[in-house]
């Protein structure tokens, strides 16, 4: 009751126009944002060293020798256009998953140095795609449970026909610690939400419509819910949440919480990026206005009776074209054969 009253007091009139947060999103998830923030502002040598320690501790190979097979040479983010896959893993609460866990959020970022631009593609978790790891078609979020980051990377490379140069993986529940360390985030809740908490207690979180300050548990529920819409809208809410996290992360008050943020990040993140790779991305934030565009994959609901999200071929091809052009690539062929692949639904 107390929480509900607090929520009611925070509810304000909805905005007539949606705020555009694209210009504030640099890279998906708060980890690289915090690392970039500390490096750019050079908050003492101890913090810089701490950032490097966090990345060193979190480093994990993607299991591919020499990088993507869709690249002729190993990339250098100081001179090359690159791509980064961000994986939010849903393995908290009472969910029974493999040791890898299902991927709960997938966002692909392509970065173009000459244009000083970023394109962010949200990939619906229930997308019906070919998964090379198992030589079968199923939901894209199963790829991570089958073979971790490597299987997810191979699946998305096959789907989009572009190289994935780096990945960042975070336990989705880590949002709770990070957001609480940021003292909450402000977002516009689109409708009344009743969701489970991180321990899967049903109905534990109750949010009313309107712009309001959310704590970590509330923000996680906001990012997860899709009871009244679909994966596309869910992806947009996650993008909105990332924008709100950036707003908080770049505030002056964050300077005094760097150590706590670094701990929250370091305990819950794996990445194939090295400290020097992270440092190279500061050029995007320091070389003038950053042009950021968010992209989404259109599709339709498919019941077989299992639910899938059937990607629209025209939307898929258009996004392939946009990403290839942004990376300044020719059109590579698919790496993985999908002959005898599409199972009878």
Q: What is the percentage of strand-forming residues? A: 15-25%
What is the CA-CA span between the terminal residues?
46 Å
Per DSSP, the total helix count is 11
Low-confidence runs of at least 5 consecutive residues: 2-31, 35-45
Domain count:
1
CATH class: Alpha Beta
Quantity of strands, as a count: 14
The order of strands across the largest sheet is: 11-6-1-2-3-12
**What is the name of the CATH topology?**
Aminopeptidase
- Helix residue percentage: 25-40%
Brief characterization of the structure:
The chain is of the alpha+beta class and 345 residues long.
Can you walk me through this structure?
With 345 residues, the protein is α+β, with helices and mostly antiparallel strands. It has one domain (2-327): 3-Layer(aba) Sandwich (Aminopeptidase), CATH 3.40.630. Helix content is 37%, strand content 22%. The protein contains eleven helices and 14 strands. The protein has helices at residues 2-10, 30-41, 44-58, 142-160, 174-181, 216-224, 231-249, 258-266, 275-280, 282-286, 313-327; strands at residues 82-90, 102-112, 117-122, 128-131, 136-139, 166-171, 185-189, 193-195, 205-207, 210-214, 269-271, 291-296, 299-303, 307-311. The strands form five sheets. Strands 11-6-1-2-3-12 form a six-stranded mixed beta sheet, sandwiched between helices. The radius of gyration is 20 Å and the shape is globular.
């Amino acid at each position: 009751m107390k929480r509900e009253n607090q929520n009611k007091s925070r509810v304000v009139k909805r905005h007539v126009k949606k705020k555009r947060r694209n210009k504030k999103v640099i890279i998906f998830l708060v980890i690289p944002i915090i690392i970039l923030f500390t490096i750019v502002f050079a908050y003492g040598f101890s913090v810089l060293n701490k950032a490097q320690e966090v990345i060193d501790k979190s480093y994990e190979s993607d299991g591919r020798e020499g990088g993507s097979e869709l690249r002729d040479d190993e990339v250098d983010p100081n001179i090359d256009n690159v791509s980064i896959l961000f994986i939010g893993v849903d393995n908290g609460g009472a969910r029974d998953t493999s040791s890898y866990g299902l991927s709960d959020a997938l966002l692909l970022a392509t970065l173009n140095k000459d244009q000083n631009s970023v394109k962010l593609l949200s990939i619906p978790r229930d997308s019906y795609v070919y998964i090379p790891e198992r030589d079968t078609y199923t939901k894209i979020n199963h790829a991570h449970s089958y073979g971790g980051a490597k299987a997810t990377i191979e699946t998305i490379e096959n789907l989009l026909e572009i190289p994935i140069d780096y990945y960042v993986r975070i336990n989705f529940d880590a949002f709770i610690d990070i957001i609480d360390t940021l003292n909450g985030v402000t977002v516009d809740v689109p409708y009344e939400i009743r969701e489970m908490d991180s321990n899967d207690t049903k109905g534990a979180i109750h949010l009313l419509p309107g712009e309001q300050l959310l704590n970590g548990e509330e923000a996680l529920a906001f990012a997860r819910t899709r009871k009244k819409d679909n994966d596309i809208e869910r992806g947009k809410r996650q993008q909105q949440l990332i924008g709100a996290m950036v707003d908080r992360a770049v505030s002056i008050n964050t300077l005094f919480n760097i150590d706590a943020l670094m701990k929250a990040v370091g305990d819950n993140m794996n990445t194939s990026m090295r400290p020097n790779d992270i440092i190279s991305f500061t050029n995007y934030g320091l070389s003038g206005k950053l042009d950021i565009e968010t992209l989404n994959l259109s599709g339709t609901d498919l019941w077989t009776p299992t639910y899938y999200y059937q990607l629209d071929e025209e939307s898929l091809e258009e996004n392939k074209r946009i990403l290839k052009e942004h990376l300044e690539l020719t059109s590579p062929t698919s790496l993985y054969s999908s002959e005898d692949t599409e199972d009878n639904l």
